[in-house]
Specification:
Blueprint lengths: L1 H22 L3 H15 L2 H6 L15 H8 L2 H13 L5 H22 L7 H42 L4 H11 L4 H13 L4 H11 L3 H16 L3 H25 L1 H24 L5 H5 L1 H25 L4
């Protein structure tokens, strides 16, 4: 009997110790409790006079404090951050700028050894410096194109959810769960922002900023008008879906008809530059006259200006607005 009681007491103490170890607060929970206790200890008048903190999370643009404070005040850094979000990249603004500066310096040093003179050395440096932004822009355009391709199905899904009696918030959650990427990721962000207290209007406006598509702008405008003035949102979404599908069909036909013009523009723009660098690497003296002779430099400037004008003209011809 004594042995049974001893074993029971030992098991009871052991269970208590295990529960204490497993249920003890973590370091994050202890920090939160300390902050709450600090707020409780502050006088009420001090709390009333304090400035209210921001309700929207401040996004850091760099891990270095002074650099983050500098970038937060820059409009260019904000545009780069928006480009990063649109490209769904994990880079930071500081990292993009550091990569651009490093590539620009490497391009300038390489041009000093490969090109005669210092006149054309900034050209490859600027091209290399712009390459990270070109990569982000390419990923942005590819993601927007994929979003546009799946948007009609997402609107149909939202329309069916509303027709079944769900609210707009529940319809957004269904789209965030059932739609393919990148539609589900963007609508999941909208649903997450609403759960954290951001007004629906602000969440939808940020969605339209991340995905600058006219079709999505129509949908966001219709949803906001329905929330403010009422109306049959299901009918509006159905008509918007039909318009978007017809617009995508026409855009596909136009891209087929203008494919030859776009290819011609790329060839005429890149072929002279590529041939110049290839000839310079094969025989440095062959293109020296274009750099050292004043008439040759004027011809280079005139050729570059005409290439830019021709590229813009071809782009204007093949860029048919729908």
């Amino acid at each position: 009997m004594f042995l049974t009681g001893l074993i029971f007491g030992f098991a009871l103490v052991l269970s208590f110790l295990v529960m204490v170890v497993l249920t003890r607060p973590s370091s994050i929970e202890r920090k939160i409790e300390a902050r709450v206790a600090h707020l409780r200890e502050r006088p009420q008048d001090e709390l009333g006079d304090a400035e209210p903190g921001p309700i929207i999370k401040q996004l850091r643009l760099s891990n270095v404090d002074w650099l983050d404070a500098l970038l937060q005040r820059s409009a260019m850094a904000q545009r780069i951050q928006l480009l990063i979000e649109q490209a769904e990249s994990h880079w930071s603004v500081a990292r993009v700028l550091a990569i651009a500066l490093a590539l620009g310096f490497a391009g300038f040093v390489a041009a000093l050894f490969l090109l005669p003179g210092l006149l054309l050395a900034p050209v490859p440096a600027l091209l290399m410096m712009a390459s990270p932004f070109a990569v982000l822009r390419f990923r942005k355009m590819r993601r927007i194109k994929e979003f546009s391709r799946h948007l009609p199905e997402a609107i149909d899904l939202m329309s069916r959810a509303l027709r079944a009696g769900h609210s707009i918030t529940a319809a957004i959650e269904i789209v965030a769960t059932e739609s393919p990427e990148p539609v589900c990721g963007e609508f999941r962000e909208v649903y997450r922002q609403q759960n954290f207290g951001l007004p629906t209007r602000e969440a939808l406006v940020q969605l339209a900023q991340r995905m600058p598509l006219p079709e999505l702008g129509f949908v966001v405008t219709a949803m906001l008008l329905q929330r403010e003035t009422g109306g049959n949102l299901v009918e509006i979404l159905d008509r918007t879906t039909a318009v978007i599908r017809e617009r995508l069909r026409i855009q596909g036909e136009i891209r087929i008809y203008t494919a030859q013009g776009r290819l011609t523009g790329w060839i005429l723009s890149l072929l002279p530059i590529a041939m110049f660098f290839l000839l310079s690497m094969a025989n440095r003296g062959y293109t020296r006259v274009l750099i050292e002779d004043p008439t040759g430099r004027r011809l280079v400037y005139a050729g570059l200006a005409l290439m830019v004008v021709g590229g813009f003209a071809i782009r204007k011809i093949v860029d048919v607005k729908v």
